[in-house]
Structure prediction request, 900 residues.
Amino acid sequence: MQTAITAPLRETEQGREADLILRSCVHCGFCTATCPTYELTGDELDGPRGRIYLIKAMLEGHSPTRATQHHLDRCLTCRACETTCPSGVRYARLLEIGRAYTEAHVQRPASVRLRRWLLRALLPHRRRFAALLWLGRRVKPVITPALGRRIPPKRATAPWTRVAHTRKMLLLESCGQADATPNTNAATARVLDRLNIELVRVTKAGCCGAMSHHMSATEEARQFARHNIDAWWPHLESGAEALVVTASGCGTMVREYGELLADDPLYIGKAKRIASLARDLSEVLIREKLPFRAGRPRVRVAFHSPCSLQHGQRVVGTVERLLERAGYTLTQVAEGHLCCGSAGTYSLLQPELSEPLLQRKVAALTGDRPDLIATANVGCQLHLESGTRVPVRHWIELVDEAMS
Amino acid sequence: MTGNPTPIDKEILSRRNSLAAAFRRWLPGECVLQTEEQLRPYECDGLSVYRQLPLLVLRPRSVEEVQRIMRYCHLEKIPVVARGAGTGLSGGALPVKDGILLSLARFTSILELDPAGRIARVQPGVRNIVVSEAASAHGLYYAPDPSSQMACTIGGNVAENSGGVHCLKYGLTVHNLLEVKVVLADGELVTLGGTSLDTPGYDLLALFTGSEGMLGIVVEATVKLLPKPERIRVLLGAFNTIESAGEAVGEIIAGGIIPAGLEMMDGLAIRAAEDFVHAGYPQAEAILLCEVDGTEEEVSEQLTAVAAIMHRCGAFEVRTASTAEQRQQLWKGRKAAFPAVGRIAPDYYCMDGTIPRRHLPEVLRGITALSRKYGLAVANVFHAGDGNLHPLILYDANTPGELERTEAFGAEILALCVAHGGTITGEHGVGVEKIAQMCIQFAPPELARFHGIKHAFDPAGLLNPGKAVPTLHRCAEFGAMHVRRGRLPFPGLERF
Prediction:
C-alpha cells in the first residue's frame, strides 16, 4: 500500500518500522473475515484493515482524535488477522506503534485514565492481586450477580511436589494464575516430576509485563521484563533447559522480550536467549513419553485454544493431541479461531464487545455437549467460567488426572 | 449519464453536517459516520490506488432502512455507492465525493437453507465461504469461489458476477443465482428472477448480475447449492516453461475433460504462495493445478488422462494430493497468491483480461516482452482453464512515476487481450479501473445501449456514478489522447 509518512516520523526508528509494515499490507481485506470485532460490528474501523488505515492516516499527518483511539482500543490483539494475512503484515507491532502514538496525542477522560492506572497498579502484582481477590470473595455475597460472577471462586489444589531431578525447567508463575487457579502450576509440577523433570519456582520473578504492554505502558513492561531476566538468568546459567509457561498470554509476551528490549544494549542478548528458551507447556510435553494410566477417562472435553496460543505463539494442535493421548474425547468446536473476549484487561475495559464475544464463544464450545471445557490461559479460563455452568479447567489438570 | 449532479456538488458538500443530522434523526449514531477521520478507511476498496472520501458512510441494519435512505437520496439527488466487504479489485466500491457510501456489511444472516430444494436465501453481507460452510452439513456447497471467498460477500459477488477457481465447470455467479431482492434508486423494492428455472419476461436477473451497483442495491440473494462430489482429486503438474504449461491447458480441454478447476501459477507467484502456506509447491517456472471431481470411476479415468497429457506436454513432475488436507493446502496457496505477492513487492496491480485458451502461450510471451519494456516484474496467477488471466504487475507506489508506468503497462496487457479476441475483464469487473478500456472493447452504438439500460433503472444517474460504463464523451477523450500520441490503440481491430 502506498504511504506518505511525515518527514519527522520517517527520521525515527518507529516511524520507519511502521512504514515498512504498512507497505507490506496490500489492503486485500482477508483479515476482516477472521476479526472478532469486525464480525460483531461490521464496521471497517473495527477490523484490522481499517485500523491499519487509521494508523496510516495518523502517521501521514492527520491528527487523531478519540475516534481513532476508540477503534484502536477496541482491538483485542488476538492476532487472528496475522494468522490469516497472506502478505505477512506484522499487525500487532503496528498497532503497538499506533496506540503509543494516540496515547501521546490524545488525552483520555480522567475516569478512564484512573481505571487503566488502577488495573496496571493492581493486577500485575501478586500480593495486591491476592488481596483484591480475597476482598472480592468477601464482598461477593453483597454485590450484584453480574459483578459477582467475575470473581473466581476459591478452588481446591493439591500440593506441589518438590523432588530434585537433574533435568530442570523454570516456571513462569503468571501473577493472576498463582492465586486464582493455583492448581495449574501445581499440576504442572506433578506431571513434570513424573517425567523426572524438576520445575523450579523463581519467587523473585514477577509479572511478564503483558498487561502494561497492552495498555501502552511500554516502559513499565520493560521494567517487568528486566526484573524477570535478572531473576531467571542465574538459573539458566546453571543449567535449566527451558522456561515453562502455563498461561499462553504470558508466553506470547516472554517470546517477544527480544523485540521489547531491542533498544536496551544491556539486556538485549539475555532477552533474546530467554525468548528462545520460553516454551508453552504443551510444547514441552508433546516431546516426552507420557505415563498415562490405562483406561480412557470417560470425559468429553471442548478445548478452547487461546488466541495467544494459536495466533500469538502459533502453537496449533499440540494441546489437542495431548488430551487425546490422555484418552479424552474432544468435542466439535465451531469458530475455533475466534477470541473469547477476555484478552487481558479487555473484558474489563470493553465490556460491550467482550460480553457478546463471550456468549458466542460459550455457545460454540458447549454446542457439542462437553462435560467440561479446557483451555490454556488463565484469562480465558476465568472469563469463560463467568459465562457458563460447564466447568472450565486448565488442560494440564486433565493430563495430571489421567496419570495419577 | 453518470456523474451528472455537478451544479449541486458544492452545496451538498457544505451540507455534510446537516445531512448527517438528518440521518441521525432516525438512525442511531453508530450507523452514520461523518468525520474525515472515520471516513478515511472507507476511501478505497481492495484497489487502494484509487481513493476518494465519501460525503458520509451509512451502515443500515434493515431493508427498510436501506429503502428509506434510497428514497431520501433520490429526493435530494444524492449519489449512492454500495459497498460489501470492500475486497473488489477494480474500484467498484470507490466512493464519490458528493455521495453516500452505503455499507451492507451488517446484513450477515442466512435467512433460509433448504437442503431438499438445494437453495440458500442469504443477506448480501454474508461471506461467500459461509454459505458453503452452512450447507456443508447437508452435503451441499455453493460453487462460485472467488479467491477472496473467505472475506468477500454475496452482494458484491452478484454486483461483480464473481467467478473463481471452480467456475470453469460450475459457472459464474450468474449461473448459480436464482433470485435477488433489490432496492432501486428510488427506494422501490423489487424481486428479480425466481426459484423456478425459467421465469417469464425479460431476464432481468441476468442483466442485474454483474451490473456493478449501477442498477440497484442487492438486499437479498437466493443461490443454488450443489451436492458435494463423491470424489475430488487435485493433480499438480510442474513445468520448465510457462508456454508448455499453457499448452497442457489447451490439450486437457481439447481432450474432452472439463476439470472442476484448472489453474496456473508462474515461478514468482509459486514462491510467494509457498512462503505463506508451505504447501510444498515444487520449484518450477510454472505449475498447473487441475482438480477433477465426480464418481470414483470418472475421477480415476480423468486423473490418468490428465497426468498423461501433462507428461506429454513436458511436465517434469506430476503428483496427486493424497489427502483432503493436502488438497486444501494446494488450493489455499493458489487462493492467497495475490496478497501473498505482498511478500515480494510492496504493491501489485492485478489485471483481469480473458483470452481464448489457444492464445495462452502467445499472450504470455507478449506479457513477458511488455514486462521487459516497462522494467516491471509480473507474477502470473490465473484461471487457465477459462483463459482468464491475472497478471500481477509488481511495483512500488512510493517510487514516483512507477504507478503511472504500471497503469500504462496494464492498459497494454488489456489491449493485447482484446487484440487476441479476448475481453478486458473476466470476473473482477470494470469499476473505475478499466473504464477507459471499455472504449476499446465496445463501439459507440453498443455503449449507447448500456446507457439506455442505466437510464431505465436510474434516470438521475445516482447509483455508483462514474463506474463500469464510460460516457461517450469520455471515450472520445480517451481516443483523442491516444491519437494525439500517434498510436490509436488497435485501429483495425474488429469490434464485437
Summary: Residues 1-8, 480-496 of chain B have pLDDT under 50 and may be disordered. The longest helix of chain B spans residues 402-419. The first strand of chain B starts at residue 32 and ends at 33. Chain B is about 35% helix and 20% strand.
